[in-house]
Amino acid sequence: MNNYKFMRPITELADSMQWQRIDLPLDIYNKTKSNLSDIRIYQVLSKTDTLECPYIFDASINKSKSYEVEFHLLNQSKRSIGPSHTFHLQDKKIINEIFLDFDNLNFDWKVILEGSTDQKSWSTILDDYRILAIKGPNGDYRFTSLYFPKSNFEYYRVTIKSKDDVKFGKATFHFEKSEHNRYSEVPINSQLIEPDKKNKESIIKISLAEVFQVDQIQLNVNSKGDYYRPINITVLHDSTLIDKKWNYHYRSLYQGTLSSLQDARFDFDDGFGKTFRITIENHDNPMLDLGTVTLRNRTQSIYSKLTKKDQLFLCYGNGDASFPNYDLKYFKDDIELHGNPIKLGTETHRTVSKDNIEKPLFDNKLWLWALLFFLVAGMGWVSLKMLRNDSIIK
Q1: Which residues contact 111 (CB under 8 A, 6 or more apart)?
Q2: pLDDT for 1-59, tens place per residue?
Q3: What is the distance between the alpha carbons of residues 147 and 151, in angstroms, rounded to a whole number?
Q4: CATH class of 65-179
Q5: What is the reported pTM?
Q6: Are 189 and 207 in contact (CB under 8 A)?
């Protein structure tokens, strides 16, 4: 415990559970190792004795329960507004997603989705829902997924509002239940949006006051109308000085498409940094009207079986620490990772005593000089003794 630079007291436990959830504070990431391996929970038993409390680390990834529903394509017909496809679900299960596939390469269609229990009375689920496919020199883009509230019909009808020759490929029916992540907003120090007219790009430069773990970036696009732009999100990870000029090296976090059909929210991993750059390719289109960019950190949590709040501390900030090896990792599936977080007190910065750090035997130069003196003196004494013995023999 004495080898950790920072500590926070655990001031209040959750009432309704034995397994306590500790949400790691946002400002902890620039005080710990990047892999969070130096986090510990200690209980102080006496002035000279502490107890390390095992915990389980929850990566806080989106958890989802999903299944695919089997169906039959009953018929394909022509309606006045366009081609229609009717599907029958073998098992009457709840669904909230339909993924459509077409052999057409380029299209921009509106879709009507309806549900029925008897194929006589139809209820509208989606109307004028847009699907799109683009295949061109600037890249490919397809958005043909239908997302809607939970539905429990036996029959579904998908109608494409188009006079085009629709080449229907296949469909899949899904239900997905997601447990969404918890996020904290990362404070931004400065944001600069500037055009790169030569490369026909918009560059967004974001600077943070200190290093943070960023897991999600959301753009605020004020432009009206449709747009489809390639986007690349990078983080500064290194710089070199060449000929008295700094060269900055960025690492890519996300490459994809910024589209008016989808949320301008992008998730990625390993976004640990202080300076971020977003590049939007405009091609021959005018720049998008962009507002404030929001950066978010996915809340990481640890779970520990704590029963008493007295003298409990969350400790971190030890560059020599490695991941703890607890038995709990073998029983993670038996633990329900949920509940309200416990409360932490004010952070305390502790100076790690040099007495706790093992030094090499000859860290002090006086030891070396003393050793050298005794070696020389010893060699001189041996030499003198040998000379005296030679004199006696002669």
Answers
A1: 126, 128, 129, 130, 131, 146, 158, 159, 160, 161
A2: 888 899 999 888 776 556 888 889 888 888 888 888 999 999 888 888 888 999 988 76
A3: 11
A4: mainly beta
A5: 0.72
A6: yes
Q: Looking at domain 183-298, what is its CATH homologous superfamily? A: Galactose-binding domain-like (2.60.120.260)
Q: Where exactly are the structural domains of the chain?
A: 6-60+304-355, 65-179, 183-298, 366-394
Tally the residues of the chain.
394
Residues 212/243, Cβ–Cβ less than 8 Å: no
Per-residue model confidence as pLDDT tens digits over 195-243? 999 999 999 999 999 888 899 999 999 998 889 899 999 999 888 878 8
pLDDT at 309: 62
* Interval 239-260: pLDDT, tens: 887 888 888 899 999 999 999 9
Over pLDDT 70: what percentage of the chain? 88
